[in-house]
Amino acid sequence: MYETATKAKADSDANKEDAKDDASKKSVEALTSIGKESVVYTGTSEGDLSYLIADNGKTVKSSELAEDLWRAAAGTPDLRTALKSDGDVLDFEITTGSANAQDLQTTYDSFKELGNGFSMAFTIKVTDPDNDNANLGSTTITFVNNKEVAAVSTSLNVSFTTPIHVNAGDSAFAQKLTTSVDAKVTNEKGETVKPSKVKPGNFYNNESDAILKNGNTAGVSEKFAGDGLTYYQPVTLEFAPDAVNVISIYNAMKKDGSQRITLNNKDAYGQNVSSANNSITYVREFQVGSGFDNNTDKPDTDDNNNNEDNNNDANIENGVWVEDNANGKVTVGNNVASLYDDNNNLTNRAVAANSAWATDKSRTNSKTGLKQYHVSTHEWVNADDVTFSGDENNGSNALGTISNLTGHHTVDLAGPDGFVYALFSSNGTRSNRGLAGNTSWYTDKSATDGEGNTYYRVSTDEWIRVSDGVSFK
Question: From 161's CA, which of 3, 19, 119, 359 has a CA 20 to 30 Å away?
């Protein structure tokens, strides 16, 4: 009888121990699984990391960790359930890269306010206090705030083409369209600042009337007429107030020169700026002649009699894009380079200064002579902004020496958000997808190609090549 009771108690204790071990195992597995991918906030689903920060350097129990992660919007309801089912048996030690509480708070404030890919990582180590604090594993959870936050600019330069040479009979109406404006606005950091609105105006006979928009217009309707005449057109660029305060910058320029607004690197005047619509207005000059080639001052030497498109008014007016193979890479110069869509409209994206991009083709406009390189599915960069080099790997150089990575690793991509980094498949061909700047991606394998370039796998058969702006952690 006594032996039977003792055995029943022993069996009961063993079952409890097995249940405890099973619950602990599930909580550890659930926790380590969420470290495989970054927790990305976009501004609409932002979590609260303050509870994890408050427990930095501390050892907490399962239920407290479950609440910390739930408030941080990390993991799933299943993870919360798994941690709580542990019954507070295990210990969870939370650490970050900042031991100093003040520095950590400063980092968190930057995480919330700066966005644009700012990240914070927390490492969680799991131990069993009932087994001499045995280490059961650890995981690192990386939080990335991808909320787009516009940095307020303190100086602006507007660069644009003037004078513009046109032929008598060329379309004047086309120059009143937004797509005719080639203005590029950069701030004090050399970053591109995109206007919220672009408004080309009417034509005037002198620059003063154009900038003030006073007096009678020049009477130019659909086409330019009058070989040898000159016309002036105001172009107004409006900006979002949270990105640019035009009058504040101009006032600082006049007061002490600490900030500046320049037009083609020359100081703007009061009539160039407006507080009413937070705008900058400049004037571009049109010189009408004959025999000019594509808005340049070079006479046209083409034999137009042999042009098959002579009867196509649209092609004569706007030109056609002629594509050519250009397998290789383009390297951006010292300034960011704007991107254009398939219709040559300026997009709100750009590529970083001194960065390199794979390209597979170029295109040249038959009227303007403008040449561009293809750098993403529907985006092109002007040849003047990059340097082209051929024979870049585009499928003839498959990846080899593929190795599994141990531990948790990410590939971090530099910003800004508009940058797109090319992806490649294991056979060396370029994917039709890419990764945005200011993002982090979990990676589990590395590889090299025949030229010694290193790649990291970020999806089933998509690899990112190590280059400027790509860092492995």
Answer: 359
Residue with tokens 């969420």: 34
- pLDDT (0 to 100) of residue 1: 43
pTM of model > 0.70 = no
Residue 148: which residues within 8 A CB-CB, separation 6 or more?
43, 115, 116, 417
Helix (H, G, I), strand (E, B) or coil at 200: strand
Give the span between the Cα atoms of 146 and 8, in whole angstroms.
57
Q: Is 85 helix (H, G, I), strand (E, B) or coil?
A: helix
Name the helix (H) or strand (E) containing 6.
helix 2-33
90 within 8 A of 27, measured Cβ to Cβ: yes
User: In the structure, what pLDDT confidence band is assigned to residue 40 with cuts at 50, 70 and 90?
Assistant: confident
Distance CA 301, CA 196 (A): 40
Alpha carbon distance 336, 186 (integer Å): 9
* Averaged pLDDT for residues 448-453: 77
Set out the domains of the chain in order of their start, with CATH numbers.
2-145 (no CATH), 150-299 (no CATH), 400-472 (2.30.30)
Residue the block writes with tokens 């398939």: 342
Strand 321-332 relative to strand 356-365, pairing: antiparallel
Residues 288 and 227: beta-carbon distance below 8 Å: yes
What does the pLDDT look like over 2-23, one tens digit per residue? 344 443 434 433 333 444 456 5
Q: What is the DSSP letter of 426?
A: T
